[in-house]
């Protein structure tokens, strides 16, 4: 039987329930970053993390959508103010055109569904926390990021010991202006060096009342 939060009026909910952001992602780096976000906004927003899917898994994006859809059907009903985030890379070899079409359909099903794309990879968004730049591919993004985050590399994509701050986020927000991945996902590869994380941060801050 599906687990549901006890019904409350909108007024009661605004007083007693924090909005929830359900998060699924391709890799460890993305999950660690959102856990840092959860620490910053834990008083105002609840982050509910689902199992990650490896980016080299066949049809990773399709599996992310399947995982989240199944979870929500079996466990929770979205309440007023909740959001569902699916975070993925455009450069992932497993993400093909048919999966982008599936993702676009999923996002249109509910206004609370949000696809968070980074091209070529999530590391590009992390890099924007330190500098405003472009990258030629995922490897280039990782190499440049390694200059700012000690121990980060293509072999060890870990944010262990790294701390996210509002100052770093503000820098990334400023550096990512005009860098949003817009248009159809199937066409997004044409725009290298873009990310929808800026919009995700705006949503999170709005949910947190900031």
Structure commentary:
The structure is a single chain. This protein is α/β, with parallel strands linked by helices. Helix content is 40%, strand content 12%. It has eight helices and five strands. A five-stranded mixed sheet has the order 2-1-3-4-5, sandwiched between helices. The radius of gyration is 17 Å and the shape is globular.
Index terms:
210 residues; alpha/beta; 5-stranded mixed beta sheet; globular; disordered N terminus
- Tell me, what's the shape? globular
Q: How helical, in percent, are the residues?
A: 25-40%
Gyration radius over CA: 17 Å
| Percentage beta strand | 5-15%
DSSP E strands, number: 5
Largest sheet: 5 strands, mixed
Mean pLDDT: 84
CA-to-CA gap between the ends? 36 Å
Q: What is the number of helices?
A: 8
Unreliable spans are: 1-15
Please give the order of strands in the largest beta sheet.
2-1-3-4-5
Helix and strand element order: HEHEHEHEHHHEH
Q: Name the structural class.
A: alpha/beta
